[in-house]
Write a structure and sequence with these properties.
By secondary structure, the chain is of the alpha+beta class. The N and C termini lie far apart (79 Å).
Amino acid sequence: MIGEREAVDKLAAVVPANVRQVCATLTDGGHEAVTVGGAVRDALLGREPGDWDVATSARPEQVLAMFPRCIPTGLQHGTVTIVTGRGEASHVEVTTFRGEGAYSDGRRPDEVHFGVPLVDDLARRDLVVNAMAYDPARRVLHDPFGGLADLQARRLRAVGPSPDPFANAVGRFTEDGLRVMRAVRFAAVLEFDLDPQTERGIGQPSVLASLAKVSRERVSDELRKLLAAPSPSRGLVPAVATGIVASILPAVAAALGDADLGAWARVVDAASAESRLAALLSPLASAAPGLDVATQRRVEELLRALKFSVAEATAASRLVALARCTAADAPALRRALRDGGRALGGAAVSLWRALGNGALADRAADILERRDPIAAAELAVAGKDVIDQLAIPAGPRVGQLLKALFERVLDDPALNTREALLALAQTLP
């Protein structure tokens, strides 16, 4: 297990110079100043830290008075951004130690109050591994809740003042419903296990009620981050078991029913980055010889309701609509790929492989590698060629002929030459 001295040495080696200077200035002014949160956690894990946030006993107006270049980014919540150089990379966010009132909206405290000790500030956070602080000026690690031990055990526990971990989980997660999404996301990103009592707390009605209040934009953002993790299954399985999925994706939870959650989650793990959202929703897929339009519409509506972008919803819905494709021959499979779009061809192949349909994936990969035409724009002739060859005026007839030619090429890609298509066009009714 990593000891406190080793932890301090690790942190001292990686805290950026501008962050150390901000903390030194605050400390020289008679205040406590520590780095907190995810950067401390990641540094101790040997991961690349993100933003280094600073927490301090100094009140916001005192922080503003101590630094020549400041941005009052959130004074009501005690946050000031110190500008230490050029560009956003030089910005250091400093927040006053604070306590919080009730969370009526299940997302933000109704009020905050300053003047609390550091331990109280750490106790209001979400997870024990995120409730450590490092004082670079004094080279002191503050770990009042056992964050180092949890890192060693690869365990995620809710933080809080109670000796009962279940009570802490219910308290933290009822306050802010987004914290449950963060908990399962961290389980996936860090490849940690949720503490059983913390997981039990997530499933409580008061917690899930708070989750229901969270904006769909924030929920979808956490879902994106979870799906980008090395092993999304680490977060997805507890997300189903606790009722998170039933809250945010009830149709998926209903479709899963009593199915093997591990098998479904492993499909998501195996899918490529561009097909993981579709893999997540694959229980909604229906068997069809090509793209299932009803499934596409249903999934697109679901994703738009969760505030995914139009592009994300369109791509994922098409992939889910192709997930259970039963195309029996090459022409049918080319038509399925046409309906999905060439840009999604690789993602479709990945999804089919993840779902265990390697034969279909291999056939589709061959079609894509040969560059068989699967879009009308890939025809070897255009409207002008048809007009000139057949001596017909521009109009609907030209479009009808091109459509008919494309259908023939989908049946037999070898026909896709200018000479063959123009000869064929002369024979079409």
